[in-house]
Amino acid sequence: MAETRRRLRSSTVALGGMGVIAAALTSCGSDPDRRCVDRDSYTYEGYKVVADKNCKSGTGASGSSYGKGGTKRGSGPDAAWYYDADLTRGRADYGTFNRGDAVDRGGFGCSGSGSGGG
Predict the structure, then answer these.
(1) Of the candidates 53, 74, 102, 103, which lies 20 to 30 Å from 83 by C-alpha distance?
(2) Disordered: where is this region (predicted)?
(3) What does the alpha-carbon distance between residue 68 and residue 2 come to, in Å, rounded to a whole number?
(4) Is 4 in the same domain as 49?
(5) What is the number of domains present in the chain?
(6) Residue 114 belongs to some domain of the structure
(7) Domain containing 53: what range?
(8) Close Cβ partners of 91 (under 8 Å, ≥ 6 residues apart)
């Protein structure tokens, strides 16, 4: 009976260890969570989340819809990708417009990943 318990415990430890490793690997991805937001819509609740089609693929904080002299181009929202934000009732807050900062935040076991400056 004692042998059976020992085997059960060791298999439980092995399975638990695999779960920790899997969680560490999946939480350390290179693509942070992102939402397309209207930068002109900020309130105390955060930025309004808009349709992804309003954000150009791959643009960061420099992907503004404002032209030279501060005049707005086009008729759509001033949309940009907002990374690693908390989402509540269609509003995103506590994130960053800089993708590099979002990657550097990392997760469990991710310290030092991303693009570090010197």
Answers:
(1) 74
(2) 54-77
(3) 77
(4) no
(5) 2
(6) no
(7) 34-66+73-105
(8) 43, 45, 46, 47, 48, 49
For the entire predicted model, the pTM comes to: 0.54
Query: How far is it, in rounded angstroms, from Cα 108 to Cα 118?
Result: 23
Residue with tokens 């290179």: 30
Q: What is the DSSP letter of 65?
A: S
**Which residue has tokens 């469990």?**
108
Integer CA distances (angstroms), 98 to 9, 74, 92, in order: 45, 23, 15
Query: Using an 8 Å Cβ cutoff, are 81 and 55 in contact?
Result: yes
- Between CA 105 and CA 21 the distance in angstroms is 19
- Tens-digit pLDDT profile for residues 2-31: 565 555 555 555 556 666 555 554 555 567
